Each structure stands twice: as structure tokens, then as C-alpha cells.
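name: query_chain
kind: protein
chains: 1
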Amino acid sequence: MPRTATYTDDAGREWRVREIVSYGDTPLVPGELPKVARVAVIFEFGSARLIADDAPLDWCARPGMLEALFARARLPSADC
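structure:
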């Protein structure tokens, strides 16, 4: 289940943070969980949306990680 959080930027805006998990092309094995290929973290404030690709799997538990991800987040590309 994707995780969510909130992040307050330097301007005091509170961003909703959620993750999108992509799974690899490895075939599923009955009884095993699929392997995670990558995680993207989405920052949303009103209609604004920023994406930080290739976030670490433990982004939610690492102190300072949301700040680092927000610093490198970009607007979504047109092909998303």
C-alpha cells in the first residue's frame, strides 16, 4: 500500500506527499511479494504537482529525506 506524508516548505506551504511504486518485469512467484523496481514521490499543493523520481524505498523513515526529495523534485513531463 502506498504511503503518504506531509511536507512544509520554506514558504510555509503544506504539501501532500504520496508515493507511486513501480514493479519490475520479473514474473510473479506464487506466495511471494513482487519486487519493487522504483519509487517516485509526488508532492501536491492545490493544483501544483512535483515529482521526485528514484526515491529510496525507506524515504518515509529517513530524517531529512523529504527535504532532499523536494529540493530535486521537478514538474511532471508531458509524457507522464
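note: The chain is about 10% helix and 40% strand.
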